[in-house]
Design goal:
By secondary structure, the protein is of the alpha/beta class. 39% of the residues lie in helices and 21% in strands. The structure holds nicotinamide-adenine-dinucleotide.
Length: 485
């Protein structure tokens, strides 16, 4: 049965599809069974240069300069409509390419539409200020677009992140070049294809597929890029920042995390259990904001972990298209990386409360399906409790006092998100105020859909904020004008 017709036309550059040469293609696979879904161009320096040149020309064109902000907004509303009209196809394509359960892809599609709507409303409300300097002088600021903005997109939430990148870039009047991850470029290409009839000036949005070390490196080093947004690993983030430094270009880095769910004995256990589970199994744990550490008060640990393990054991594991609770991890490479952490736990005598093994799914034996896993009583300083595993693997560390909970929560190189579970309002705010991270959820957890909420990290989780009005700062620059009369 053919679920969706995967036709790839090429890279999208200057409003045209650049047809790939046969010898320069990348295989795109379905993580469910490792079958080949499509071939996309292996773009490199040449395609990046064409795309950046097209974006620069479009950005400087009279057509774009005179494109009224409310018309940018209207166009973004139409994009949201088109996404919803094609929601089933987009969700299936995302699931086939990323492996995540269909229901999660459907949420991603709705979030993508919401990004367009949110930034549609913002397009004609990017305001400056007047500054009362002295009588006889009118002093004001304008927020101007920054120019050509590069977006390097990760493989775990490709459609959501492409939508967020395109929507904010258009709303702020920039021109964008997107480089999707080599493993999961299909919904980004589909999105620009669906947007083609909207009449966006040619070159305002460009997509170049390709490997990170080729197309990604060329994009971040291109001298005509005016801003780079990168989401992915710390190591690549460093490289992107080095390239940006050479061109004196600002960067926004979103580099993942080791986010704790801090569970106090006075919490609502039922709610805490539900969200601790969801936040580590969503997208098979391949989420930058995954709640990958359970930091829990010692007195309730045994019962809580026992219940959590029982809940994990009931989850169904299988192909994303069949909408199981847990799909496969992305690839053999990602599986082996995750497995190496589990092997380390075994070697160091850490108790595996549940999971830890690959599952062979009938009919999809080549897919990399992994049981959701709990590593119990992991010392806070252990590698397993410090490093991002990026799979459905939860570490458990206990505390006895509030101070200790905060120290453990803050005790990793990362600082993206934290969950705090307590019925004591004073404690909730006290703890939130001391957490070194960009977002705190009290008695719930869920950064994924927070379109309006600024999102980004402290420490090695990066800097700069995506989402919400805060993201406008990345994509605009302030000009101050003083007039004497
Ligand atoms: P990565 O950082 O290598 O890839 C992310 C993006 O950067 C991709 O589009 C890739 O093509 C591009 N890229 C790679 N090398 C580049 C370079 N030299 N210059 C410019 N762009 C480049 O991540 P990965 O190898 O796909 O995954 C490795 C680990 O990164 C994961 O296991 C996980 O820990 C982390 N990760 C985090 C996120 C997140 O949401 N923060 C997303 C993906 C991966």
């Amino acid at each position: 049965m053919k679920l969706v017709d995967v036709q790839v036309q090429g890279c999208f550059i200057g409003g045209e599809w650049k047809v790939p040469q046969k010898e320069r293609l990348i295989e795109v696979k379905n993580p469910g069974d490792c079958s080949v879904l499509a071939f996309v161009p292996r773009g490199d320096k040449e395609e990046i240069d064409l795309a950046v040149t097209a974006a620069k020309k479009a950005f400087l064109s009279t057509e774009w300069k005179t494109f009224k902000p409310y018309n940018r907004g209207k166009l973004l509303y139409l994009a949201a409509e088109i996404i919803r009209e094609n929601k089933e196809e987009l969700a299936k394509l995302e699931t086939l390419n990323v492996g995540k359960p269909l229901a999660q892809s459907a949420v991603d599609v709705e979030i993508a539409a919401r990004y367009f709507e949110y930034y549609a409303g913002v397009a004609d409300k990017i305001l400056g200020e007047t500054i009362p300097v002295e009588p006889g002088i009118i002093n004001y600021t304008v927020r101007e677009p920054i120019g050509v903005v590069g977006h390097i997109i990760p493989w775990n939430y490709p459609l959501q992140i492409a939508a967020r990148s395109i929507a904010v870039s258009i709303a702020t009047g920039n021109a964008a070049v997107l480089k999707p991850a080599e493993d999961t470029p299909l919904t980004t290409l589909k999105l620009v294809e669906l947007m083609e009839p909207l009449g966006l000036p040619k070159g305002i949005v460009n997509v170049v597929t390709g490997y990170g070390h080729e197309a990604g490196a060329a994009l971040s080093a291109h001298p005509d890029i005016n801003h780079i947004t990168f989401t992915g690993s710390v190591e690549t983030g460093k490289r992107v920042m080095e390239s940006a430094a050479k061109n004196i270009v600002p960067v926004t880095l979103e580099l993942g995390g080791k986010s704790p769910n801090i569970v106090f004995a006075d919490c609502n256990e039922e709610q805490a259990l539900e969200w601790v589970l969801k936040s580590i199994v969503q997208n098979a744990g391949q989420t930058c904001s995954a709640g990958s550490r359970l930091v829990i008060e010692k007195s309730i640990k045994e019962a809580f972990v026992g219940e959590l393990a029982a809940m994990m054991d009931k989850l169904s594991i299988g192909s994303g298209i069949d909408n199981h609770d847990l799909g496969p991890v992305l690839s053999k490479k990602q599986f082996e990386r995750i497995k190496s952490f589990i092997d380390l736990a075994k070697k160091d005598g850490i108790r595996i409360a549940t999971g830890g093994e690959r599952i062979l799914v009938e009919g999809s034996e080549s897919g990399y399906y992994l049981q959701p896993t709990i590593l119990d009583s992991v010392p806070a300083s252990h590698h397993l409790a410090q490093e991002e595993i990026f799979g459905p693997v939860l570490t458990v560390t206990t505390f006895e006092t509030e101070e200790e909970a905060i120290e453990i929560a803050n005790g990793t190189p990362y600082g993206l998100v934290a969950g705090v579970w307590t019925e004591n309002v004073g404690r909730a705010h006290r703890v939130a105020s001391q957490l070194q991270c960009g977002q705190v959820f009290i008695n719930h957890y869920g950064a994924g859909g927070g379109i309006a909420q600024p999102f980004g990290g402290y420490k090695k989780s990066g800097f700069g904020r995506e989402k919400g009005l805060e993201a406008l700062r990345n994509y605009t620059q302030v000009k101050n004008v003083a007039l004497k009369y």
